[in-house]
Amino acid sequence: MARLRPIAMLPELLRNFFKKPNTVKYPFEKLTPPKDFRGKMVWEPEKCTGCLACVRDCPTGVIDINRAAPDVRKFNATYRMYLCIFCGQCVDSCPVDCIHWTSNFELAGSKDAMTIHYDCSPEVIEQARKLAAEKAAAAAAQKKSEPPAPADKPAV
Amino acid sequence: MPGIRIPIGPQHPALKEPESFTFELDGEQVINAEVRMGYAHRGIEKGFEDRTFIQGIYLAERICGICSTSHTTPFVLNAEELLKLEVPRRAQYIRALTGELERVHSHLLWLGVAGHEVGFDSLFMYTWRDREHVQDMLEVISGNRVHYGINTIGGVRRDISTEQIGRLKEMNKLALARTEYYIRLCTAEPTFISRIKDVGRLSKQDALDLCAVGPMARASGVKRDVRKDDPYCCYDEMPFDVITADTCDILGRAVVRVFELIQCYKLIDFILANLPEGDIKIRAPRRIPPGEAINRYEAPRGENIHFMKSNGTDKPDRVKVRAPTYANIPATLVTLKNCFVADIPIIVAAIDPCFCCADRMIRLSDRKGRDDRWSWGQLQHYSREWLARNRRA
Amino acid sequence: MAGAEPEGMTVEVVKVLGYLFVFPGVVFLFAYATFAEWFDRKVYARLQNRIGPLHTGSGGILQPVADFIKLMSKEDIVPAQADKGLFNALPLFSLASALAAFIMIPVFRVSLPYTSFPGDLIVVVYLLSIPTIVYFLAGWSSTNYYAMVGAFRNLTQLFGYEVPLFLALLAPAMLAGSWANGTWLSANWQISEVGKFYMAHPYLIPVNIIGFVVALIALQAKLERVPFDAPEAETEIVAGALTEYSGKKLALFRLTVDIEMVTGSALIAAVFLGGFVLAPVHLGTIDLSSLFSLLLFVAKTLFVIALLSLGKALMGRLRIDQTVAFSWRWLAPAALLQILISIVLKGILKV
Fold first, then answer.
1. Of the given ranges (B201-205, C81-85, C126-130, C325-329), which has the lowest mean pLDDT?
2. What's the pLDDT tens digit per position in C20-62?
3. Which residues of B make CB contacts under 8 Å with A?
4. Can you give the pLDDT at residue C173?
5. Which of C272, C257, C252, C289 is CA-nearest to residue C71?
6. Could you give the maximum distance between any two Cα atoms of chain C, in Å?
7. Which of B58, B105, C121, C331 sits CB 3.0–4.6 Å from C189 for a disulfide?
8. Contact (CB<8Å) B195/C319
9. Has residue C1 got a pLDDT over 50?
10. With contacts defined as CB-CB under 8 Å, which chain B residues touch C229?
11. CA B31 to CA C33: how far, in whole Å?
12. CB of C228 within 8 A of CB of C323?
């Protein structure tokens, strides 16, 4: 046990008196979060394949995946940020890497403002439709020219 | 004023979390202390049964904010044991690193809270300022300051880059220098020492009889540390000492925690220097075959026990958590006898209470094995009856 | 002339009312006490590497005023079992005695004959001890366990620091007393005379250093600040004697503490650091001595308050038994030592 010294903290206090305060005057000054900080999640709905892994693994059930159009396999995502705990499990579960973190943490708002819809853009849906139509035409042509054989064409 | 009974809690400036202590006093001396727990009960063990194992990791994390890795790690260790998975060594080292960083931030937090309970607010401000560096590092490696979410079944979710290793080494050096300053300060400041020396005595025999864990037991000379007794996450390969003190009072507990900080810095240096190459996780199936597993973890507050029972589905059948604070409560009641009213906050703070970890479900059964469980309907009925009877009061 | 007398008296009455209520009376004291609280909070924060109040007014200077206004607008709750008359009247008593104590300290060059008289040093110390007894009564009439413990600790602490404070303040006055009939016993317990003496003999100020330190420590105990804030220990007994007070009454109690801080520091500065009343200072034909004495008052009291803030940041809280033990073991003997030094020097120097 060291010797007891009264007013042992005096040198430290006086030294800190002349230093700049450690406080960051938020919101007038802001600190930047580091890379891969778990802030708001963003989707790229064009890449989504509808496997629903994110919906299954989300601890709080904030994700809804819906069909964008009845005839093509393209999906919209609805993200209810007011329930999200920002764990990032959806980012890990997604097999096609269409969910990303951002560093945005100033997210407070009303329930409506915090329900974010990531809709697949119409051009991509059109493109998918065209692709599906081309494939179907090619399959029909091949079918006509070949003897009937069970052809496993995935239903689009 | 002989025989007066006062409550400290559930809401009191001394308690950071709600717990109801009732003291029987004689003037300024405490004769007897009783505790009533359950104010922070949230039904987490029931919640585990409704969620898959992956979702359960995040629920386990949120049992406590300060010791969050202390709950996810035994949870995933249980799941991996039931799946008979061999977790890569790099993942185990990263788990140990996060655990040690959490121990650092928790002990610095405790030092500040102890200073605040005895009125030494400058110590509180300085230790929490230095703790910010540790929090920043945790944010860099895991994406969040609390609730790191770094564990997953089969390994860890994030890797550590070389640049992050460099920053961690710098933070370690800085924190070590500051901790050495706090050791010099706290052993020399007479007002602090006079408040914690010979206060809250717990003899070694009492610590053994009442099953105290963590720094509470180690300060009474009981050399118990799960990292040495029952190693997990490659702790048996890492060199560190178990710190004990034999003064059996709060000064001993403070000394144990502060010197454990020094050991943590040593461990962090070792881990960063010897991080093995390899994967950070292996693929784990979603369904876990039926079985039971039990695992212990050395949380900053003591020994944390997790029990898991699975039944072949993707949801656990039963998860039971025994937090270290729960084990330290009987010992606290003994240390509170014959102390002054002025010493109550610091004695309660000396176990580093984390009541939200501790409030889990107990099922009491009588000798014949019957237990009195009530359904929701029964509970409602009872509450209406009670209110009708006592409305006049 | 028959008409001049009443007019002269009216002017006199206006002057007295202005002195008592405007400057350096209630209005100035309110402004200065809140300024002193801001200064204390800023110094305390900077010592802990923080900022302190920042946004209310420039640099947070209006923060204590904002706190006062906020408290005045909150709901005032009186416990059902409390003694209502006593409970409601006590804040006014403590405020009145603190205000009355400040009037006796010669701040301004012009002082009224009935605010500066031989013996006013004793009167000030006496008036400053009334708020402590009022806190005891406040805790007692609250019928709350925490308030009662706080009230008892208040009185216990009073037994500890009051004697050293008194002795320490008396020592420089003894040195400054005038010789009469060849004995030194006719010390003149008048604050302005003590101040004048030390302004005339500034080399004697360092002689009282022990008394200065004792008086500072005892003042810290009187104001119930760390390390002597056992009567008001937030983590043990919630808020001590004032636990049940809210709204306007709490606002008045907090204002009393601020005014006590200013009065205590002004007293220490007046007795130990030479006072504020200067010889006449002229710039050309303008008499600037009043302005200078005001600046000197602000400077010296802020210096003392800065030392008190440093004391607050430096240490932890002592238990009540440790406070009393400390006072009787160290403070009282040191104060006696200071008195001994004063007596010996008085005999040697014959000033």
1. C81-85
2. 787 778 898 999 999 999 999 999 999 999 998 999 888 899 9
3. 51-52, 54-55, 58-59, 61-62, 122-123, 126, 129, 132, 136, 139-140, 143-144, 147, 149, 152, 157-158, 181, 184-185, 187-190, 193
4. 85
5. C252
6. 68
7. C121
8. yes
9. no
10. 119
11. 43
12. yes
Report the range of poorest mean pLDDT among B187-191, B255-259, C111-115.
C111-115
Q: Are the CB atoms for B111 and B178 separated by under 8 Å?
A: no
- Residue pair B296/B233 in contact by the 8 Å Cβ criterion: no
DSSP H or E stretch at residue A38: none
pLDDT of residue B4: 84
> Is the confidence at residue C3, as pLDDT, over 50?
no
Tokens for C145?
A: 């366990």
How buried is residue A3: exposed, middle or buried, by Cβ count under 10 Å (0-12/13-18/19+)? exposed
Edge-to-edge strand list for the sheet holding B316-322: B291-299, B302-310, B316-322
Which two three-digit tokens encode residue C148?
Answer: 């009662």
Do residue A12 and residue B126 have CB atoms under 8 angstroms apart?
yes
Q: Which of C42, C43, C49 to mutate to test the interface with A (most CBs of A within 10 A)?
A: C49
pLDDT for the residue numbered C179: 53
In this structure, are residues B48 and B33 in contact, taking their beta carbons and an 8 Å threshold? no
Question: How sure is the predictor about C71, in pLDDT bands with cuts at 50, 70 and 90?
Answer: very high
Tell me the residue type at A120.
Answer: C
Which residue(s) pair with B291 in the sheet? B310
Tokens of C82: 């409390």
Q: What is the pTM of this model?
A: 0.89
Q: Is the ipTM reported for this complex over the cut 0.85?
A: yes
- Going by CATH, does the domain composed of A32-138 fall within 3.90.1200.10? no
Domain spans of chain A, in order of start:
32-138
Is B372's pLDDT higher than 80?
A: no
Q: Which residues of B248-268 are buried (b: 16+ CB within 10 A; e: fewer)?
A: bbbbbbbbbbbbbbbbbbbbb
Q: What residue spans define the domains of chain B?
A: 48-58+69-333+343-352
Q: What is the pLDDT of residue C273?
A: 87
To the nearest 10 degrees (0 to 180), the angle between helices A10-17 and C289-314 is 130
Regarding the domain delimited by B48-58+69-333+343-352, which CATH topology (the fold level of the hierarchy) does it fall under? Cytochrome-c3 Hydrogenase; chain B (1.10.645)
Query: Domain extents for chain C?
Result: 4-349
Spatial separation of the C-alpha atoms in residues A141 and B1, rounded to whole Å: 101
pLDDT at A4 exceeding the cut of 80 = no
Q: How would you class B114 by CB atoms within 10 Å of its CB: exposed for 0-12, middle for 13-18, buried for 19 or more?
A: buried
Encode pLDDT of B125-181 as tens digits: 999 999 999 999 999 999 888 888 899 999 999 999 999 999 999 999 999 999 999
C55 contact A CB<8A: no
Going B339 to B342 to B347 to B350, the CA torsion angle's sign is: negative
pLDDT at B393 exceeding the cut of 90: no
Enter the DSSP assignment of C230.
G
Whether pLDDT at B190 is above 80: yes
User: What is the rounded CA–CA span in Å between residue C60 and residue C51?
Assistant: 10
Q: What pairs with residue B90 in β-bridges?
A: none
* B204 min Cα distance to partner chain A (Å): 21
Give the per-residue pLDDT at B157. Answer: 92
| pLDDT, mean of residues B291-320 | 93
